[in-house]
């Protein structure tokens, strides 16, 4: 509970639990021996990378800041964790300005505006669909690589 409440110390238990539900934390936190009171971290329950990221999203939901910055929010996640994170992020980003830094293009395909930066300069910008239509564009080439899987990656 306190791990999420850290974002807004005055939050009620009900507000913390609501943020946890929106971020898909409630499912695993409820299963811990002491529920939300379970100690996590080095001296307690170990959380997976996806679980830690969902806790961070729950904090951001509770904080309710008007601007959100996400830096590689889905990096190093398995497909199931990424699905939960994507769903939670969609709820979190609604109605606020969001800046997303990502190499995994599936993270940003729903954004209103995508800026493609190469060599420190903006080389393309637009919506996902527009950028895919730009033949020989960097975004389109990267999308083709990622959508087809990386060399050596198993389906």
Automatic annotation (TrEMBL):
MF term (GO), any: ATP hydrolysis activity
Organism the protein comes from: Candidatus Doudnabacteria bacterium RIFCSPHIGHO2_01_FULL_49_9
Taxonomy, superkingdom: Bacteria
PANTHER family, A to Z: ATP-BINDING CASSETTE SUB-FAMILY B MEMBER 10, MITOCHONDRIAL (PTHR43394:SF1), ATP-DEPENDENT PERMEASE MDL1, MITOCHONDRIAL (PTHR43394)
Lineage: Bacteria, Candidatus Doudnaibacteriota
Sequence ranges assigned to domain ABC transporter in this UniProt record: 23-75
Single GO BP term: oligopeptide export from mitochondrion
Gene3D superfamilies, alphabetized: P-loop containing nucleotide triphosphate hydrolases
Pfam families on file: ABC_tran
Protein's recorded name: ABC transporter domain-containing protein
């Amino acid at each position: 509970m306190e791990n999420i409440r850290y974002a807004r110390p005055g939050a009620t238990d009900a507000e913390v639990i609501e943020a946890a539900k929106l971020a898909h934390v409630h499912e695993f936190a409820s299963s811990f021996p002491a529920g939300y009171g379970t100690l996590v971290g080095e001296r307690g329950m170990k959380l997976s990378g996806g679980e830690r990221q969902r806790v961070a999203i729950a904090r951001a939901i509770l904080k309710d800041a008007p601007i959100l910055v996400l830096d590689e929010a889905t990096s190093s996640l398995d497909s199931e964790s990424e699905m939960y994170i994507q769903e939670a992020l969609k709820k979190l980003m609604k109605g606020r300005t969001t800046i997303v830094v990502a190499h995994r293009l599936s993270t940003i395909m729903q954004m209103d505006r995508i800026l493609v930066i190469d060599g420190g300069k903006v080389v393309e910008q637009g919506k996902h669909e527009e950028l895919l239509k730009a033949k020989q564009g960097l975004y389109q080439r990267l999308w083709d690589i990622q959508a087809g899987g990386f060399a050596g990656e198993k389906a």
